[in-house]
Design brief:
With about 350 residues, the protein is mainly α. It has 16 helices and no strands.
Length: about 350
């Protein structure tokens, strides 16, 4: 079978050094999945890898709120973004929390019997649509908002990276679609998933980039610096585009209403502007990124790391658009090139 990676060939994890090796070590300890392809695919751009991991760790794993609730939010986000890889992963992780019946209800396309669970799932789905009436009131205590909001935004970013740069197959031959397999996989990481992680450990991976407090919804938690660091790292992808391309991306994302666009639409640049096209696809329809799109953009000087940074730029533009519409009382995303486009 073909490997899991599309358009890039990440460095072998066994040869990782520096911050990449440190991220893999934390993945093994706190996520329970050593060298998860979700993050290996980012390793060509370590400056993106570290904050992407930090945001997920400090919200989903170590942030406030129950792990079951945050897994439901992540499941809803992944379903709304049409990311089957991540939907399958969160089904497995719900097994890891011990919520086996809930996991299988979702796998069958059902609705959780528990009203609170159903509301969190619906909220996760609704986060894709800026201004959706289901975004407020929150279906979780205000004190847990940093965990839930951070989880949702982390997976709006991760879903887009996965859909653009990985295949849909979590396991060979989609074995995770078998109930026995997903249950077994969940049980294999159950001890790690059910252990309470110490908040803030990932911030040491960010260096000076982890010093900003981050947006208002995460102020005072480790998710804040992680989010701000990811925003800064993703903004670095702008260097791969000229001013006209950046404007095209900004206008396309600002006009987006959360829907899944058709295969071709007016706001999608053609392949004569390949960098802008890749960034817009990464933001709004990453599963439509093709070999032809990447070939049109590739130049001898462009590495796999450049492609990761360009995809991250587009993905985070969508994240920022989503974050800006979470509702009253929630501050917009950290100031920077993404928020500037809305002014």
């Amino acid at each position: 079978m073909p490997g899991p990676f599309r358009h890039t060939t990440p460095p072998p994890p066994t040869r990782a050094t520096g911050v990449v090796a440190d991220v893999y070590a934390q993945l093994a300890e706190d996520f329970g999945i050593e060298r998860a392809t979700t993050f290996v695919v980012l390793s060509s751009a370590p400056e993106v890898l570290a904050p992407a991991w930090a945001l997920m760790r400090e919200s989903l794993i170590a942030g406030p709120g129950t792990r079951t609730g945050k897994e439901l939010a992540a499941y809803g986000v992944s379903e709304a973004n049409r990311c089957p890889f991540c939907v399958d992963a969160h089904t497995m992780l719900l097994h890891a929390t011990g919520d086996h019946a809930l996991a299988e209800t979702l796998a069958r396309g059902g609705t959780p019997a528990d009203e609170g669970h159903a509301r969190v799932l619906a909220w996760g789905r609704a986060t894709r649509t800026p201004g959706s009436p289901e975004l407020t009131p929150f279906p979780f205590p205000d004190a847990h908002a940093p965990g839930y909001l951070g989880t949702a935004l982390a997976f709006h970013f991760i879903n887009r990276v996965v859909s653009a740069l990985l295949t849909e197959t979590l396991l060979p031959y989609n074995a995770q679609r078998l109930r026995a397999v997903r249950s077994l996989l969940g049980r294999s990481v159950a001890r790690t998933v059910r252990r309470r992680a110490v908040p803030g450990r990932s911030l040491a991976l960010l260096g000076e980039a982890g010093s900003a407090p981050g947006p208002g919804w995460a102020r005072g938690t480790a998710a804040g610096p992680a989010y701000a660091a990811l925003a800064g790292a993703a903004a670095g992808g702008a260097e791969l585009l000229d001013a006209a391309d950046r404007a095209l991306v900004g206008h396309a994302v600002a006009a987006w209403d959360g829907s899944h666009p058709p295969p071709a639409w007016d706001g999608l640049p053609d392949r004569s502007r390949p960098g802008a096209r890749i960034a817009v696809l990464a933001a709004l329809a990453p599963y439509r990124l093709t070999d032809e799109d990447v070939w049109a953009w590739r130049r001898p000087a462009y590495t796999d790391g450049c492609l990761v940074r360009l995809v991250a730029y587009g993905a985070f533009a969508a994240v920022d658009r989503i974050a800006s519409a979470f509702g009253p009382g929630v501050a917009p995303a950290a100031e920077g090139p993404f928020t500037a486009r809305r002014q």
